[in-house]
Design goal:
By secondary structure, this protein is mainly beta. The chain contains 1 helix and 13 strands; from the N terminus they run E-E-E-E-E-E-E-E-E-E-E-E-E-H. It has one domain. Strands 1, 2, 3, 4, 5, 6, 7, 8, 9, 10, 11, 12 and 13 form a 13-stranded parallel sheet that branches.
């Protein structure tokens, strides 16, 4: 699988044998192949590989999970959980992709705004009368 890098090509990789405890803050892509415990706040993409385990709350622009996350996730754009990936915690994102073989245990908030009565579109009554 090819890694999409930031525009300037910068990325940080946490290797398979590395454990980080504490906060990770930054604006370049983060690739987790090892273990992170604490908190992650990244302005761009977080990639959690099959070998990666994150026991932390994660705030990012988008995230791709092939390993595991134990903690809450808040993302501005999109979360994708691929086959074999899992999340144990709450998810907040406008877009979510859960592939076959992935799992989530927690609540999912997709920031769906209820339609106002002034919004044009089919009403509940017209949907039942068609």
């Amino acid at each position: 699988m090819r890694i999409n890098q930031d525009r300037d090509g910068a990325q940080t990789i946490i290797g398979k044998t590395v454990t980080i405890k504490g906060e990770i803050l930054g604006s370049e892509q983060l690739v987790v192949e090892g273990r992170v415990e604490g908190r992650i706040m990244i302005d761009t993409t977080v990639l959690i590989r099959e070998s990666g385990l994150v026991k932390a709350d994660v705030d990012a622009n988008d995230i791709n999970i092939a390993g595991g996350v134990v903690g809450n996730i808040a993302v501005k754009d999109k979360i994708e959980i691929v086959s074999g990936g899992y999340v144990l915690g709450d998810i907040r994102t406008p877009r979510l992709i859960i592939n076959d073989g992935a799992s989530v245990k927690g609540t999912i908030d997709m920031d769906v705004k209820p339609r106002s009565d002034d919004t044009p579109g089919p009403s509940k009554e017209s949907a039942f009368n068609s």
